[in-house]
Structures
1.
Amino acid sequence: MKRSSQKHQLFIGVLAVVLASACYGVTPILSNACLRGGFPESFVGRFFPGGAFASAILADPARAVSNETLVCFSMGIACLLSLISCLLTRKRLAVSGKQLWQLGLFGGGALAGTLLLITYAYLRIPAGMTIVINFTYPVFVALAGILFFRERIRPLVFVSLALAIFGIALISWAGLSGEVNAAGVLIAVLSGVTYAVYFIAGRRADYAGLDTGVANVYITGAASLLALAIALAASRFTFPQDAVMWGLLFLEALLGYVVGLRLLLLGIRLLGSTPASALNTLEPAFASATSMLVFGETMGLTKGLGIVFVLGAALISIIALRKKAE
């Protein structure tokens, strides 16, 4: 009976992480649709031939939102959804002053930086590739532990770093032949660095012990305000023009920061953080698959090998982090 219960728990945990990865794999498509003002004609014609709905979701550059607006509204909606959830479950929203500024700076600031960099990369390289390169963040987390927190040097860290560098080099080499924009690769790598900061802060900052839903209210709220400030300062604020754009922004916030997050947390609780994190590397696989389906993106041999090496580096880094915790 006990073994049956463990198998059921394992199944539910794996299913939760796979579904979370699928949610996170869809959000880049929604982001790209917001940045382009809808979906490409080839995709719409293939899956929604004719009709008012097809016309409504067809890409129109005139209604496209800016990168900063995308992050501002998606994070704002996520903040509102998280707040409603906390109020319905009667969670205590009060935090200390120190927790508040850390939530704003290390949480919201790092998250906004990550999302902005990712959206800038979307304009230069395929969405699936961007998410794959962003998954170098476990490597940067492991390196930060050595450089800033005096953690013991482990051979696995250097193996993961070498694989990540080699994988990015292969992807960049594809860029030199005209397949990939090298600037987009660099921006995606920087998004991995900022996401590592966000990840480390979630473990080490004073707000690490806060309820995830409560912390999410402050983090997404701060990220939204920061993106708004950047949009206004750069004169790039663009208000969503119609129900389709609002719907895309709402779906991105719901899937990425409510449904996906809760599924991932459930998977972590049932499986443990390391197995769940390793399984979550399916996210870039889903992102790549949906990018090819929706936007017709292609993957050559060199680029494909680079992606495999980057994901391998992420898995090894996760293993190294587990060994450190033991």
2.
Amino acid sequence: MLKNPRLFFSVLLLAMTVATAPANPFSPQDKKPSEDDQSGQLVEDQVLDEARTVGKPRSRAEFGAWQEIRETKDVRKQGRLAERFLKKFPDSGLTAWAHLAIANAAFSRNDVDRFIRHGEEALIELPDTVELLAPLANIYSESKRIERASDYAARALALLDQLEKPMGQNTVDWVAMKQGWAADAHYAMGRSILEVWTKSPNKPVSDLQEAVEHLKQTLKMNPGHGYAAFRLGFAASRTHDYDTALLAYARAAVVEGPAANSAKGHVQRLHDGLKNVPNSRWASTNANKIIRDERNRLETEMDAKEQEYSRLASEYDAAAAQKAAAPSLVE
């Protein structure tokens, strides 16, 4: 059984995100405050702006405390520094970014409640933060908060195509992060549709097709997403696509997680039914071999993903270089 690559993948993505985010909220002229007192030095608590402005510090003390957070590479230390920042500067224009840092630190510790609380605080002033919207959608879909899950997932998917790589971010990591967020958002959509379907009194099979497509997209973006594989097995079996259901359950069986043992049972039961169908492709095999073959297929797909990241990163860098080299149009 493979160690759950989805869990590792998600935590890694958030860790990489925090190393470069929150993005610098200051314009160049704000990086070196110039207000001086009579001695020629900026007073530590001197206010730069009377009114609170989102994304702006109000004093040199705030600026220095925020710089310390930005320059820290350790995710959890960033979270601790951000907590201290909020206590010291509760009216800062940078509080949303501090909540984001705390949320990401909580995510790295698998502290779901804390991630939700600070993630939601950050979204109040940073509503287009995909690295919050996608995982929150995922969490809400599993806790059956369907409306919020669907809303956040749809917002994340709409924003992904417009997302620009942060300055200094490794492009391969950036591509991987975007695909990870897309996987989370598609999963949340598919999971939400399944939840609505199970509560529907009529349960029309046609309503499940959209869930199937979202779950397939999840696995395309993240082949090791065991929960998506398990849900796809359920949805496909209800639409009578038993071949897809069998392979989806086999995928879930080789990804370590709470659904793995149950998935093995579904593989066995589906195979028992399919092997007796006339001219069945499954007649000459068995459940254990199906799972072994799926393990090999997953490893191949994960390797192919790494190559895809490198290819997409090269294409992104080439396009960015071409854009930078193009003459600008000046009136």
3.
Amino acid sequence: MARLVYAAAALAFSCAAAQKPSVVDAVDRSERDRSKDVHRKPVQMLAFFGVASGMRVGELGAGGGYSTELFARAVGPEGAVFAQDTPNWDGPELTKAWQDRLARPAMKNTAHFMRQWDDPFPAEVKDLDAVYSVAVYHDAVAEKGDISKMNRAVFAALKPGGVYAIIDNSARAGSGATDAEPLHRIDEQLVRDEVQRAGFELVAQDDFLRNRSDGRDWNADPSVNKAHTQDRFALKFIKR
């Protein structure tokens, strides 16, 4: 455990030094996105994930695209971002959000598509450097996706040495998938076990989104938890 914490801290330090300030500080980011920075902590997220110029990355459950745009800016014009959303979320609001977001110059390197959790990427999306999942693993579980198949699909889409990084809302230890639907949370150990079962190796974790005072017994959905005070874990896996 200590080795993982140390590795995460060292990696975060080295990556943070390499991050271009323009990724988060870009003047053309929307005010709506900027307002989320205080609780989403994008500098720490990009550093921990190891996002860098020229990378090809995928994203599971992109939602309105807050994280997607950060990834797109970080990988730059030489990179590419492939953002998946589930058809379960399809509707006028999501469609409009993506029309607006994809119209921005920074998003020219990004493709957005609607696909099921267990088959998140088209066949031509392969040899990725990384796949990111930001506060949506519990959604895939709650919506009865085939999680084992999803994780295997991520494994197949990554090149050897590729990163699978996951952030999500912490559930009570030992609760498994029980709180995924009612509380929008997932047991961290369940995620670790499921992802490693797909062939990944856990190599780092970080606590930049931790809140140890969280009792983990209330609904962490953003529509309910406006303050975003839930404890969140951050894990990084590697395809060996």
4.
Amino acid sequence: MAAPDRPTPVPGRDGVSALKVMPGVEIPPPPPALKPARRNAPDPAAFALGVLAGDRVQLARAITLAESDAPRHAVPAADLIQRILPSSGKSIRIGITGVPGVGKSTFIERFGIFLCEAGHRVAVLAIDPSSQVSRGSVLGDKTRMEELARHPLAFIRPSPSGGTLGGVARKTRETMLLCEAAGFDVMLIETVGVGQSEITVRQMVDFFLLLLLPGAGDELQGIKKGIVEMADGLLVTKADGDNQLRADAARSEYARATHHIQSPTPGWTPQVGMCSAVEGTGIRDLWETIQKFRETTTRSGVLEHRRADQSRAWFDALLEDGLHQWFLSRTGMAEHVDRARNEVLQGRTGITAAVHSVLERL
């Protein structure tokens, strides 16, 4: 009697290969399960050597490590900064701010190219505003500064602000030190935009530049006095074509206004100029002003004192941040804070009493 026919296996459903197997050919065993790739722990020593050698790839990776919020990266990042610290601090740090539409990116590109052509190595730390909803950021400054991004003496690092007040990323100081250690002698820090909280950029730069639009009058009244009081230099942009006369009039108005405001830098009178990023006018005059500022403040000791104040502010900020994290990490503290906050939101407890109840748990 003939052997009964066996049911034909259905490929992919009966546990067999979907490939057709010829008679007499054995099916090879399945490959061993692949283990997920294990990331190596960051090596601060290797990063530091790469940064000091001017390796851009290593510099970018080192900045990523310094900007990381992962707890496992805290110690390696601190070790990295400690290793490169002696080679930092030799640049001129310039903060640049202005209202949206004033042309910050266009100006920075033209200014950066001018500096590169003069032989300087320029690092641009461009801070992009982060979404309060998604916490994401466009990080499009490299697309707005295409020519400067391609220059061999320039380095552009866009970073999300992360919602940080002050218009700068939380780890901008560490990034600045790493770029200085990599040999960049001019630092351009572009802030998010003008606002009263943005004066914190004053605490990390030597020269603070405020960009202004042509047309004084009502626009002068609309600018925050706190920002003007922090500026070492004011520059009216877009001084070309039909704007030429308006820009000159605005420069005169701002120059008169600064005489009624106390200078943020002892021994230095804030300078007011105008420029056209399109035509390249006024750029050289600005750089001469910044060089004069550096010579004046170095000779008087003001720059050294300012750097000390910056370090003090940085220390206090990091200490406050560390204490906050330590406080919330204590057992049950985060839950107690949430309960106290909810009682305030529901109107059952006053804010002062709720905060006292949290602090009493210490």
